[in-house]
Design goal:
Strand order of the largest sheet: 2-1-6-5-4-3
Number of helices: 4
Distance between the termini: 47 Å
Order of helices and strands: HHEEHEEEEH
Largest sheet: 6 strands, mixed
Number of strands: 6
Helix content: 25-40%
Structural class: alpha+beta
């Protein structure tokens, strides 16, 4: 499989995972996760394995607050480590049904590791989500000191 075909396969799989937040069919979308995947949420929670991913997401998204929410985002970069492993950088945020757009305070960036099998099917094996936050004044000042 060439890189462009692999990128398109990863994009399709990623879109299916995103769409599961709207359809609430996490079991169907989980076919794009390895059985032993690691999933680190924005708050540092570590979910281990496909079944835990399904359970936690079903509980979360079946809550009245999240019902009708959409996961929005896009893949920013795909870097192949070899023919069967790719590191993907993407952005995302959940937009609740009453919002026109997701607020900046919920914007996240994530790093994922995707692996392919002999048939060329790609699955997410590691996901690490990080909330995007502006750097405070003190941290900004410290960074400026480091440039001198």
């Amino acid at each position: 499989m060439d890189n462009q075909a692999s990128i398109e396969a990863i994009q399709r799989a990623n879109l299916e995972i995103c769409n599961s937040f709207e359809t609430l069919d996490f079991r169907a979308a989980s076919r794009y996760l390895t059985e032993d995947c690691d999933y680190i949420a924005f708050n540092g929670t570590h979910l281990k394995g496909r079944e835990e991913y399904i359970r936690v997401h079903e509980e979360l998204m079946n809550n009245f607050m999240f019902r009708g929410a959409k996961l929005e985002g896009e893949i920013k970069q795909v870097r192949f480590l070899n023919e069967t492993t790719a590191v993907v950088i993407a952005t995302g945020a959940i937009r609740f049904r009453w919002q026109k757009q997701a607020p900046e305070s919920r914007q996240s960036i994530n790093t994922t590791v995707w692996v392919s099998d002999a048939a060329g099917d790609w699955q997410l094996t590691a996901f690490h989500n990080c909330r995007v936050k502006k750097i405070g004044r003190f941290a900004s000042w410290l960074l400026k000191l480091g440039k001198k």
